[in-house]
Amino acid sequence: MAGGEAETVSGPVTGEAVALELRPAKLLSRGAAVLIDLAVTWLVFLLVMVGVLVTTASLDEAAVAAVSVAVFLLVPVGGPIAVETLSHGRSLGKWACGLRVVREDGGPIRFRHALVRGAMAVVEILLTVGVVACVASLVSERGRRVGDVFAGTLVVRERIPVARAPELAAPEPWLAQQVNGLDLSSVPDSLWLAVRQYLGRVRQLDAQVAAGMAGRLAEELAVRTGVSVPAGVPAGSYLAAVAYERRERERRKVGALPRGVAEVEVPGGGAGAVPEARGVGGEISPAEGGGGGEGRSGGQAGTGFVPPV
């Protein structure tokens, strides 16, 4: 708040008073998605109409006209409605362009949203060749056509490059000693994920909202570890220190693993050494010894027996 005026947020807001980062689709990408959907829809419509005309050749003109109207309502009008309902706002064209139809609050659409969009698309896109939809999208702040306004929906981009999480800075030495002995084995992955998300977006949150979220996360960490937050330490700093400590433990654990398979030490020899096999009387057996040649004259190979001279 500055100058006595409250700052307003035009986008959807969650229960934590955090604005959702919905990225509306551009007009060009929406137009490309519509062209793909129309091409597929009319191809299916023509194939169905050919089949209908072949099967209804024996009927009179009134019956053929009624069937044709029914096919038109089912395929070009009902088809997109069914596809958006079943796919939760992602038709073939939107899938190809990385788009999706969502509610204004960011949730998935339902049948009533798809029905309103499909009914208005007959006027906006089919009857006016898309002129009304283009003008409405250009005028709208978030690129919404008339069907989106009446249905309470928004076409957003799904394929957004994910920004790399900020690197955790090492905490102060005295704070590092406080968290060094914590038992983090009982902390679930969901809580670690919440902590990482908070640390990555703390600069984008309102100060009071950030403080409240940090306090709740720190309390839950204290319950899991069995150690309360040190007195005088801000909850956000404590979360950053614990997250840094966990990351360092994981790095040390990975660094302590052996790089290769250790050699097996054989008793009586060096690493990998094999003791010599000797026969009776200490003679080396030709089959097992290192000579590789024949034994003594008249001796049997591999028995260790030496005949008298």
UniProtKB/TrEMBL annotation:
Domain RDD, chain residue ranges per copy: 25-152
Annotated Gly residues bias: 288-302
Keywords for the protein's UniProt record, in alphabetical order: Membrane, Transmembrane, Transmembrane helix
Pfam family, one: RDD
UniProt entry tagged with the keyword Membrane: yes
Main localization, broad class: membrane
Gene Ontology cellular component terms for the protein in this record: membrane
Annotated segments matching region Disordered: 268-309
Subcellular localization, as worded in the UniProt entry: Membrane
Membrane topology: Multi-pass membrane protein
Compositionally biased region (Low complexity): 273-287
Protein's name in the database: RDD family protein
Lineage: Bacteria, Bacillati, Actinomycetota, Actinomycetes, Kitasatosporales
